[in-house]
Design goal:
The complex is a heterodimer of chains A (about 220) and B (about 160).
Chain A (H helix, E strand, L loop, with lengths): L2 H41 L5 H32 L7 E4 H18 L3 E4 L10 E4 L1 H18 L5 E8 L5 E8 L6 H10 L1 H12 L3 E5 L4 E5 L1
Helix pairs in contact in A: 1-2, 3-4, 4-5, 4-6
Chain B lengths: L3 H6 L1 E5 L3 H13 L3 E5 L2 H10 L4 E4 L8 H11 L4 E6 L4 H9 L4 E4 L4 H27 L3 H18 L1
Helix pairs in contact in B: 3-4, 6-7
The chains are: A alpha+beta (about 220), B alpha/beta (about 160).
């Protein structure tokens, strides 16, 4: 990545981090005010039980949506700090989880489900030292390629793994009755514009893309 | 919820420039029987600490004027016994590293569940008590230099309180 691009990213990162900080303050005020109302009614409940129940239901909805907003803002704030370092040691499971939370909406708009998978039998963290922005870009181009290829009512699962040679990898596994056969899937995948971007960014990261020709799976190996 | 005695015992200072947030949080913490005071910026916080040393300080990082990191640095230098919990909406790992390096007891992301915060405050207070207890233990064991180190801290604290 050239210095000009890094500067631009750092600028956007600072602006976005600043704004998410403000949004978190707004959410914090709503949370505390709602919490105070809850504390007060716990000490002194409303006169009629039916109103207390309605109040509790509304409060539960507010808290549920607040938690959703807090999760998204926290992850987005972390994402905004991604350009802070051109190289960092990352926990791949943490990065994949963050990525799926932030990009789930892209999949949802196409009626495709996106989840972060759990590494089978993983006792220790899968860590890698890399450029965090470029890693996010690689994950995003992988997702975009899949979204351009898969029909509605299918699913994508991204799972951090270690290869047989102990290299960190992110597995993209697609499933669904409507999904194309592997041959067609990979033909369409490779035709996607995002796939060519993925190849470039993976090469810049010193990684490679491995395909499972018999299944709808591929790996980004770092 | 804590006991009445605890309200008299733990003294906390909440420092945040978001007035609505910090006042409501203070009210909720007081409902849990912990005495809470409020400062709306770094200058106010340092002034407060010079007059009445709290046991635990809950500190935001991004504030106009003297920011949280500078407040933390000065407080830990002058009053090392004060346990500082950072509560911030800023998710920078660099900030967390710096805060912990300067001696922050804990680093929490805003917003936080009030009961989680109260648990951490109690934990921080417990640690402070244990530190004081250690001073007594060292003195009893004849390790006066180590004990004096702890006692000097307390003496400075008492002097400032007067």
């Amino acid at each position: 990545m050239n210095p000009e691009t890094e500067k631009t990213l750092a600028f956007f990162g600072r602006m976005t981090a600043n704004l998410t900080h403000e949004v978190k303050n707004v959410l914090a005020i709503i949370q505390e005010s709602a919490g105070l109302m809850e504390d007060i009614t716990a000490i002194c409940p409303l006169a009629e039980e039916k109103y207390q129940e309605r109040f509790n239901r509304s409060m539960a909805t507010i808290k549920q949506q607040l938690n959703r907003g807090i999760d998204l803002t926290t992850q987005f704030n972390r994402f905004a700090h991604t350009p802070d370092r051109s190289s960092a040691e990352l926990d791949l499971a943490d990065t994949v989880g963050q990525f799926c939370l932030l990009t789930e909406r892209f999949a949802r708009l196409k009626h495709i489900s996106l989840t972060a998978g759990e590494t089978a039998g993983a006792q220790e963290q899968i860590r890698l030292t890399t450029n965090p922005v470029q890693l996010f870009m690689a994950l995003f181009f992988s997702l975009e390629s899949c979204l351009n290829t898969l029909p509605a009512n299918t699913a994508i699962r991204v799972t951090p793994q270690k290869t047989e040679t102990k290299r960190p990898a992110a597995e993209f596994a697609c499933t669904g009755e409507q999904a194309p056969q592997p041959g067609e899937f990979f033909r369409q995948l490779k035709a996607a514009e995002a796939w060519s971007e993925l190849n470039d960014i993976t090469a810049q990261l010193g990684g490679q893309i491995a395909l499972d020709k018999d299944d709808l799976r591929f790996w980004l190996v770092f | 919820m804590g006991s009445k005695k605890e309200k008299d015992k733990i003294k906390i200072l909440l420092v945040d420039d978001e007035q609505e947030f910090v006042n409501t949080l203070s009210e909720r913490i007081q409902m849990r029987e912990i005495g809470a005071n409020v400062a709306l910026n770094g200058e106010e916080a340092l002034e407060f600490v010079d007059n009445e040393v709290p046991d635990v300080m809950v500190l935001d990082l991004r504030m106009p004027g003297i920011d949280g990191i500078e407040v933390l640095r000065r407080v830990k230098k002058q009053y090392p016994d004060v346990q500082v919990i950072i509560l911030t909406g800023h998710g920078s790992e660099k900030d967390e590293e710096e805060a912990r390096r300067l001696g922050a007891f804990d680093y929490l992301q805003k917003p936080v569940e009030v009961d989680t915060l109260v648990t951490r405050i109690r934990k921080a207070y417990k640690q402070q008590i244990e530190t004081s207890f250690m001073a007594g233990t060292f003195a009893e064991a004849g390790e006066f230099d180590t004990a004096k180190k702890y006692m000097d801290k307390d003496k400075d604290k008492d002097k400032k309180k007067k």
